[in-house]
Here is the input.
Amino acid sequence: MIYINETEVLKLLTWDETFHAVEVSMRRVSEGRVDQIARSKIKILNRDKLLFTMPGYLDDTQYGAMGCKLITVFPNNSRLPKPLPNLIANIFYMDEETGVIKAIVAGTEITKWRTAAASAVATKHIYGKKLKPGSSQILAIFGSGEQGRIHAHCFKYFFNFGEIRIWNRTVSNGQALARELNETYKTDIFKFVRDRKECVDGADVIITVTSSPEPVVLADWVKPGAHINAVGASNTHFSELDKKLYDCSDVFIDYWNGAKVELKGLIDEGMKFKGEVGEVIKGNLMTVDERKITIFQGLGMAVEDCAMARMIYDKFMNNQSNQKSSSTQLTKSI
Ligand SMILES: NC(=O)C1=CN([C@@H]2O[C@H](COP(=O)(O)OP(=O)(O)OC[C@H]3O[C@@H](n4cnc5c(N)ncnc54)[C@H](OP(=O)(O)O)[C@@H]3O)[C@@H](O)[C@H]2O)C=CC1
Ligand SMILES: O=C(O)C1=NCCCC1
Here is the structure.
């Protein structure tokens, strides 16, 4: 059994491969080639510290894997004298024949990357036809934490927005992220917007990645035909958007098993989901009305983590064996 740490994982992550692994996972879900249940959650000391488990199995030649991700969310970690990520994850990657653990793959970066990639996959497949050439369109990101930052990088990589607005509850954090991104990309397209309505006004694509238990985006502010990736999870996975917004939109999910549990509140209120993103990828589902707002309610799936763990493991082992064979050749030539 090997441990692949965060530093090694980061060296091996690329946006194109992450996008592909997530896209394949979503498709396999809707082809019935996965087994996964809604994540389990326990509260530590009955407070806001959480431990989640996410077991899954994905049947696929390239990304097929059996695994289980363990995640802790400790909201105070970033404020410790020696700060730690609030969300820490590790993925147990197992042999399909024997159940033996082949590797534990550090999963904090993977969780960030695959979550942002899931939003990008959903945007491409649900909103792709409305993406315009050139850079006239506007992206609005709500939340400037880890997910806010990684979504900004991911959407800068895959799309061509002319303006990327950032709103955040703590103004200084939002301003700092906009500044950091402008410096990284030597641009001025990242703009911190203090007012939520102003941030949404005219935005073509919206991403919500906060832990807010109250809606941060309201239906009346959103332009017809816009696409929203709702990713943040406070106590529920649907608290960032107001009820009216759900009611007037086509809502897509990543997997029914998760939605039945984590979106139960919406289901109990009579909410009907359009279907899984995997069905859209397969070409079986689409939004017909151009002016309808679309929402991807991204819960995050164990099989995405399985696919990512398999990909990182394969790349890691491949690098190791290349290094070994080049050092053997060196020894022989000496
Ligand atoms: N769907 C999925 O697959 C995944 C979802 N998530 C969820 O995404 C969310 C963001 O995660 P991450 O970026 O890692 O977390 P961070 O702790 O890094 O950031 C949290 C963000 O939420 C904001 N926030 C917290 N409380 C509130 C509030 N009451 N009102 C408004 N904003 C608030 C913070 O703003 P401030 O700077 O003001 O504190 C900050 O922008 C979390 O809810 C997490 O559970 C995470 C991973 C995967
Ligand atoms: O999919 C994940 O991973 C997570 N989703 C919600 C919050 C914790 C991690």
Notes: The longest helix spans residues 302-333. The CA atoms of residues 139 and 280 lie 22 Å apart. The two ends are 33 Å apart (CA to CA).
